[in-house]
Recover the amino acids of this structure.
């Protein structure tokens, strides 16, 4: 399999069969690590960064991870490919857009990505569909151990793992889930969620992570503290205090809407379908927003002619990078809006035949 | 034929075969008249108003107009019926909503309406589809002459016909056309039209006349001066100075859109269709707004599956009064929005089979 082949498939983290996938789209955990013997990145020269990139690559290839892994040097691929990797949530915007020697090692099933020379020397990320943080943690711990057997991570007995940014010191862990919360949004309860999150020191963010706006009623919930607790404690607490209650609220809000506001719900769902079926120009944001209602409609069994697989396909391939890849050429904003609308109409039509 | 039967048909003034109907929906002319021997309405008692109502009725029944005319006493019909007559533009909002003895004599083909005890003793109105003001003026003059042979109109050799409001003194004529100007709206040129109209002493108003907002890109153009010119002069000038140039601008704007903004045009047209085909709740305003785009789409040959007849049917029967009549019960706003959406989906579906 070639790296280029994955661009033609929907990211496995969108698999609609993940646990609790009626609300939880995806789970992810990342560990921030720095390697003893190498200068921290804020001080490192390009030569030192390059040396580190080669070092990590070599060491990983000495482990059992070598099977089914791609090494992707950011300087070897096009801006469009970097954009697609960002859209697939395999690399960060920062890794895609900054300069200098940097890369990512990707498991071919897109369940694991190890970025080198992002903010820290190494960022290990594991992801899956639905709510499966415990399983992910077991996975990423094994990877962490494998790597630690080949290199020494900067670690202080007092503080734990040392990281470029003090907010990551300690466990270096970030645990996050992407939640689909259209009913909380529709009933105006998101403010309540944001307030509760603040009190719990939990971050609620948009679809593309830090600093991004929520799009299509997708919200990312993640831990903010990494210090003074074990990894298992952080995960358990995040699930119990934040994720489970929010899932519960969302499901209760959906039930209430079904009971009390069915025409308003159907109106939103079917208008979304009507616009997607007919628009000739459509932005990426509007697409996500409308697909969000279709997704809700499918989960609430208000719409039966469209499958989650179709929605996920549309969700994925209407992103600017993937859309240009599909069209095999660079497109400006208006051309993208037109190509996106054409693609959506075609896919929806095909999915019903 | 019964009065109640007309509520089930589309108003003939919406006939899509009228001259220049790609832009001009309807033409209308009204004459304001007061009758010598009766107190002006601002001073008249209910008894006097009643006497006038009977007098006018009797006199009209002595003329050839008696054939095919209905006499409708406003106090004898329900508020819903009054609302429907307003929606059919056969009576004014004022006649529908005020109290006291008042009525209208209606030609059964809806081409002529004579309101008694509105602002003036008598308001004679003639209407037709498309642009046919000269023909209408010939018609209404004949009616005016017929009435004048049976009663004396208040007339001053110096000022002309005397009316309740000084703006109508003189000829007492108001000439108006309802224009569909979506391309001027889309290209942001309506301000230019409003400015030109002000310079020409021509009024530009919304769909329901004085004080109403433009809905669905429908604008009413009418003369503002009634004094110091002949009726023919007023009509000729309004056509030459205002109506023809605006039609010309609109057609030019449509051509420009076809040449330069086809995807944006198709996007608006097809989104409108998508929403109408799918909404479960829809307001009267949004309906008109969306039908306006469908109408444009048909005239510009961008849409071939929908006929003007269907659009006109939807336009007519989605108005609040007609909608409740169709549903045979009083409906609150939310119920109307739901019934309207259901009706539109049903009609669009039926029209394509």
């Amino acid at each position: 399999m070639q790296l280029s082949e994955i661009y033609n498939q929907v990211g496995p983290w969108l698999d609609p069969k993940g646990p609790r996938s009626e609300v939880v789209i995806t789970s992810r955990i990342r560990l921030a690590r720095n390697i003893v013997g190498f200068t921290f990145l804020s001080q490192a020269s390009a030569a030192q960064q390059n040396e580190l990139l080669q070092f990590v690559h070599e060491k990983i290839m000495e482990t059992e991870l070598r099977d089914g892994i791609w090494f992707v040097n950011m300087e070897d691929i096009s801006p469009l490919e970097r954009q697609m990797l960002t859209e697939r949530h395999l690399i960060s915007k920062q890794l895609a857009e900054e300069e200098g020697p940097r890369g990512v090692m990707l498991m071919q099933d897109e369940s694991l990505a190890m970025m080198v020379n992002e903010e820290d020397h190494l960022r290990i990320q594991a992801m899956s569909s639905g709510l499966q943080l415990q399983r992910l943690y077991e996975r990423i711990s094994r990877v962490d151990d494998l790597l630690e057997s080949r290199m020494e991570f900067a670690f202080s007995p007092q503080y734990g793992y040392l990281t470029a940014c003090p907010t990551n010191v300690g466990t270096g862990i970030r645990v996050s889930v992407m939640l689909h919360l259209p009913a909380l949004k529709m009933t105006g309860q998101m403010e309540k969620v944001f307030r509760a999150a603040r009190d719990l020191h939990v971050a609620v963010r948009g679809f593309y992570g830090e600093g991004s706006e929520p799009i299509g009623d997708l919200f990312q919930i993640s831990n903010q503290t990494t210090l003074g607790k074990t990894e298992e404690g952080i995960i358990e607490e995040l699930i119990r205090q934040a994720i489970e209650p929010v899932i519960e609220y969302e499901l209760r809000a959906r039930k209430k809407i079904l009971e009390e506001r069915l025409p308003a719900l159907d109106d939103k769902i079917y208008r979304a379908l009507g616009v997607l079926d007919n628009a000739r120009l459509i932005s990426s944001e509007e697409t996500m927003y409308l697909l969000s209602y279709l997704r809700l409609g499918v989960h609430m069994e208000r719409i039966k002619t469209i499958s989650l697989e179709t929605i996920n396909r549309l969700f994925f391939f209407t992103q600017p990078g993937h859309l240009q890849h599909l069209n095999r050429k660079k497109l400006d904003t208006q051309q993208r809006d037109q190509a996106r609308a054409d693609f959506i109409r075609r896919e929806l039509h095909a999915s019903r035949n």
Remarks:
- Chain B has a mean pLDDT of 93.
- Residues 231-260 of chain B form the longest helix (30 residues).
- Strands of chain B lie at 24-33, 69-73, 103-107, 112-116, 122-129, 155-156, 160-161, 173-180, 202-205, 218-223.
